[in-house]
Design goal:
The chain is α+β, with helices and mostly antiparallel strands. It folds into two domains: about 180 residues; about 170 residues, Cysteine proteinases (Cathepsin B, Chain A, Alpha-Beta Complex). It is about 15% helix and about 30% strand. The protein contains six helices and 16 strands. A six-stranded antiparallel sheet has the order 11-16-12-13-14-15. Strand 2 and strand 3 form a beta hairpin. Helix 1 crosses helix 2 and helix 1 packs parallel to helix 3. The radius of gyration is 19 Å and the shape is globular.
Length: about 375
């Protein structure tokens, strides 16, 4: 089960190296650039990423032995009404990172909303989402800020709290996926370079874990991708049992293991691994990653993926590992023991993926060559 099965995850329109900061490099289609620059108008969907934070003012907090850093106004180039923020950070034992966002609305003063409290090893600082954040401007659905009316920009705020012996979190990467629910996304033709290709990602099933048989699709998918990278890179520290990954991504406030940024934050806690959540608009974009030899974790409606028309929002995470010669989608499915490697029709995958607004986890080494983000939907490195 993924979050789509809960009312919060139905995505309706809302009813009525300095320690701590590793300095601001912006990706292609940088924040504060207007739509159309760097080769994409984005059409209601865009990703922004940072690896340096030099122009984010930082204030030290002597009482908590931590710091607070607030971004300038960041604008994707269109009015947005959904935001998912991801981060990759090292959090020494006892320390924690709080990620917050304040939409920028003309003549309004919304609060900062908490999008996550993160610690790899929770102690005094608890890893959790913050429920109950709902007001006249919008609400936080576990980890997604959903607005009633579109905003032009956002301020992001990071708060770091010290752990044992005063050790502070160290942030390596921050990403923001902006979406306009009523946007008109650009289209791409299929990328046939991926057709007929399958990446041999290790197969695992949540059905092997009684306590997670209905819950652990996300950590199981993540464990498969990390294990694949571990084997490819010769890094045994990336290869973990599903139980270990589930423990590392668990969100007690949700509760469960389907918090998207917590999953990518876990993966991104490993040295030189970049992991984040973003929204795409085309299967061709996944094909570009497969053609580059990189598997993609996708959030889907499991019933619709299996061509069931009576879906009640059965959210599920799967690993896209390839495409058939006809362009159908080959996946590692953690929800099945009998068919852990399965093929689904392209049409069924598109219908199922639509229910998460085409959400994916992208997980890869920081140095890995990634495909060109033609539509501006993922991080491709700093602007030269």
């Amino acid at each position: 089960m993924n979050r789509l099965s809960k009312h919060r995850r139905q995505f309706p329109g809302l009813p009525g190296p300095i320690p701590g900061l590793v300095g601001l490099a912006l990706l292609v289609g940088t924040a504060l650039l207007p739509a159309g620059e760097n080769g994409s108008s984005h059409a209601g969907c865009a990703f922004r990423g940072w690896t340096r934070f030099d122009d984010w003012p930082r204030e030290e907090n002597l009482e908590s032995r931590g710091w607070t850093s607030t971004s300038p106004v960041l604008a994707p180039g269109f009015d947005w009404d959904e935001l998912v923020v991801s981060w990759n950070a090292t959090t020494p034992r006892g320390s924690g990172l709080v990620v917050e966002a304040q939409p920028v609305l003309a003549g309004e003063a919304p609060p900062f909303y908490t999008l996550g409290r993160w610690a790899l090893e929770p102690g005094e600082f608890k890893r959790e989402s913050v429920p109950g954040q709902r007001d006249r401007w919008g609400e936080v659905n576990t980890d997604t800020l959903v607005l009633r009316e579109p905003a032009r920009g956002v301020r992001l705020r990071l708060r770091a709290l010290a752990g044992e012996a005063g050790a502070l979190p160290e942030l390596r990467f921050l990403g923001a996926s902006f979406l306009r629910r009523e946007g008109s996304p650009q289209t791409l033709p299929p990328n046939r370079a991926a057709w007929g290709r399958t990446i041999d990602v290790p197969r695992r099933t949540q059905a092997d874990y009684p306590e997670g048989i209905n819950e652990w699709c996300s950590p199981t998918s993540l464990s498969m991708v990390l294990a694949w990278w571990g084997g490819k890179l010769g890094r045994d520290e990336l290869i973990h049992d599903v139980r270990d990954v589930a423990r590392g991504v668990h969100d007690p406030a949700w509760p469960g293991t389907g918090n998207w940024p917590f999953n990518t934050a876990y993966a991104g806690s490993f040295t030189d691994i970049r992991a984040y959540v973003t929204r795409l608009t085309e299967v061709a974009e996944i094909e570009a990653w497969i053609a580059a030899g990189i598997p993609v974790i996708a959030s889907v409606d499991y019933d619709r993926l299996r061509a069931r028309t009576d879906s009640r929002g059965s959210g599920h995470l799967i690993v896209v590992v390839g495409f058939t010669v006809e362009g159908d989608v080959v996946v590692n499915d953690p929800g099945s023991r009998a068919r852990m490697r399965n093929t689904f029709s392209r049409a069924d995958f598109v219908a199922a993926w639509k229910h998460s607004r085409q959400t994916v986890y992208l997980v890869h080494p920081e140095s890995a060559p990634v495909p060109e983000p033609v539509l501006g939907h993922w991080f491709a490195g700093p602007v030269r």
